[in-house]
């Protein structure tokens, strides 16, 4: 590896599995110090253990991105520990894919909005100000093709990802003068545990792999200008 993220501090949400895990692992292999965050502490500790065994640096933080207090507390702890967050990757998301849009339950709608959209906003809210103060930082928001292409069976998910796409574009324009780069990735179906659980008859090796998204995120973190 080339060490293109040497000594950069990265916060990755939803990093216990899937795309988040791949991004955290890739970033660490390129020299980043990674705050591996998510709700399942056992998964986080496993990811951190693997990163450390490979010679990387990482610390697990249990955090629910939909919880304002938890997000603020975690960000403050990370800033207190390393004095900065150079890279923020908003990856945490859930999906309910078993109900037509018009029969979506209020519970499913609220839960997906809270994690997928509100969670992205909260992390940006508590991190980006410190980046703007330093006139340096990178934000990568993981959206989805569902944010631009309607799908009948995942209405709430698509709505949240439309929101993430719009928010990402607005944020990019807003913080560009302050030296912060904001970009989004909108993958289609990716072969992760989440999609396998949700669509067990469709997932397979022909799908995009988490490592493919991680390589794209690495490019955005290390090289790419803002949209």
From TrEMBL:
The lineage of its organism: unclassified sequences, metagenomes, ecological metagenomes. One of its GO terms (molecular function) is oxidoreductase activity, acting on the CH-OH group of donors, NAD or NADP as acceptor. Belongs to the short-chain dehydrogenases/reductases (SDR) family. This is Beta-ketoacyl-ACP reductase. It comes from marine metagenome. InterPro entries: NAD(P)-bd_dom_sf, Sc_DH/Rdtase_CS, SDR_fam. Pfam families: adh_short. Keywords: Oxidoreductase. The keyword Aminoacyl-tRNA synthetase does not apply.
């Amino acid at each position: 590896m080339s060490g293109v993220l040497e000594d950069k501090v990265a916060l990755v949400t939803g990093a216990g599995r899937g795309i988040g895990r791949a991004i955290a692992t890739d970033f660490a292999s390129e020299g980043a110090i990674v705050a591996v965050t998510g709700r399942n502490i056992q998964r986080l500790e496993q990811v951190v253990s693997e990163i450390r065994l490979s010679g990387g640096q990482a610390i697990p933080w249990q955090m629910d991105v939909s919880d304002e207090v938890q997000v603020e507390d975690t960000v403050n702890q990370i800033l207190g520990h390393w004095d900065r967050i150079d890279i923020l990757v908003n990856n945490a998301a859930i999906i309910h894919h078993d109900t037509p849009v018009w029969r979506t339950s209020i519970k499913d709608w609220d839960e997906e909005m809270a994690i997928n959209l509100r969670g992205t906003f909260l992390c940006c809210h508590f991190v980006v100000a410190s980046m703007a103060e330093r006139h340096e930082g990178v934000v990568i928001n993981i959206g989805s093709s569902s944010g631009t292409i309607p799908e009948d069976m995942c209405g709430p998910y698509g709505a949240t990802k439309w929101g993430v796409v719009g928010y990402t574009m607005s944020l990019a324009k807003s913080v560009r003068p302050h030296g912060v780069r904001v970009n989004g990735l909108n993958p289609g179906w990716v072969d992760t545990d989440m999609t396998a659980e949700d669509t067990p008859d469709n997932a397979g090796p022909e799908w995009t792999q988490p490592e493919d998204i991680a390589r794209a995120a690495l490019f955005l973190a290390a090289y790419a200008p803002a949209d």
